[in-house]
C-alpha cells in the first residue's frame, strides 16, 4: 500500500518548520508536485522540482527535516466507493526525513522522473531558479485501516 501511494500520487503535503518572519519556528505546510521516478521506473523515493522563491523551500534550506503526506485521494477504493479522502478507510502515507538537493549524478534521473509525470513543469518560468530535491526517508507511517 505504501509503495502504491508513493507511485500513484502526483502531489503531496510537505510540512516544515518555518524559517522566516513572525511564524519562525512554527509548523508550516504546502502541497508540492512529486514523482518517485519515471513512469516505468518507480523507486519509492520522492523527487521534487522546487524554487527558492517558495517559502517551503526556504524552510528546507535552513532545516532539511520534513514530513510528506500522501493521501489515497485518487485511489481506486475511495473513488469507487465515493468515500471522502479523510475517511479512515482511505489510506494515508507519511514519510519523514531530510529533504536534500539532488546531487549532480542524479539530476538526469530526477528530470526524467518529474518531466515524465508532470510535462507542464518544463514550461514554468526559468527566472524562478528551479532545482531538484528529494527526500531521504528516515521513517514511514502508513495508516491503512
Essential attributes:
CREG2 protein, 6-stranded antiparallel beta sheet, signal, 21% helix, secreted, alpha+beta, Pnp Oxidase, Chain A, 145 residues, CREG
According to DSSP, the number of beta strands is 6
Q: How many DSSP helices? A: 4
CATH class: Mainly Beta
Helical percentage: 10-25%
Anisotropy-based shape: globular
Q: Strand portion, in percent? A: 25-35%
Rg for CA atoms: 15 Å
Count of the domains: 1
Return the average pLDDT rounded to an integer: 92
CATH-level-2 architecture: Roll
Strand order of the largest sheet: 2-1-4-5-6-3
SSE string, helices as H and strands as E: HEEEHEHEHE
CATH homologous superfamily label: Electron Transport, Fmn-binding Protein, Chain A
SS-based structural class? Answer: alpha+beta
Give the CATH topology: Pnp Oxidase, Chain A
Point out poorly predicted stretches.
none
Gap from first CA to last CA:
11 Å
For the biggest sheet, the summary is: 6 strands, antiparallel
Domain CREG-like beta-barrel: 1-145
Protein name: CREG2 protein
GO cellular component, one term: endomembrane system
Keywords: Glycoprotein, Secreted, Signal
Structure description:
This protein is an alpha+beta fold and 145 residues long. The chain has one domain (1-143): Pnp Oxidase, Chain A (Roll), CATH 2.30.110.10. The chain is 21% helix and 33% strand. The chain has helices at residues 2-8, 55-62, 76-80, 107-117; strands at 11-17, 27-33, 47-50, 65-71, 92-101, 131-143. Strands 2-1-4-5-6-3 form a six-stranded antiparallel β-sheet. The protein is globular, with a radius of gyration of 15 Å. The mean pLDDT is 92. One of its GO terms (cellular component) is endomembrane system. Keywords: Glycoprotein, Secreted, Signal. It is found in: Secreted.
Amino acid at each position: 500500500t505504501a509503495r502504491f501511494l508513493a507511485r500513484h500520487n502526483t502531489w503531496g503535503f510537505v510540512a516544515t518548520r518555518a524559517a522566516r518572519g513572525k511564524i519562525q519556528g512554527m509548523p508550516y505546510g504546502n502541497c508540492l508536485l512529486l514523482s518517485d521516478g519515471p513512469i516505468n521506473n518507480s523507486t519509492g523515493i520522492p523527487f521534487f522540482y522546487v524554487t527558492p522563491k517558495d517559502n517551503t523551500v526556504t524552510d528546507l534550506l535552513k532545516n532539511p527535516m520534513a514530513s510528506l503526506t500522501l493521501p489515497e485521494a485518487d485511489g481506486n477504493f475511495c473513488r469507487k466507493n465515493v468515500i471522502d479522502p479523510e475517511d479512515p478507510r482511505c489510506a494515508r502515507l507519511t514519510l519523514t526525513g531530510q529533504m536534500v538537493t539532488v546531487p549532480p549524478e542524479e539530476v538526469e534521473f530526477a528530470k526524467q522522473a518529474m518531466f515524465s509525470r508532470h510535462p507542464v513543469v518544463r514550461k514554468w518560468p526559468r527566472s524562478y531558479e528551479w532545482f531538484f530535491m528529494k527526500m531521504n526517508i528516515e521513517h514511514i507511517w502508513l495508516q491503512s485501516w
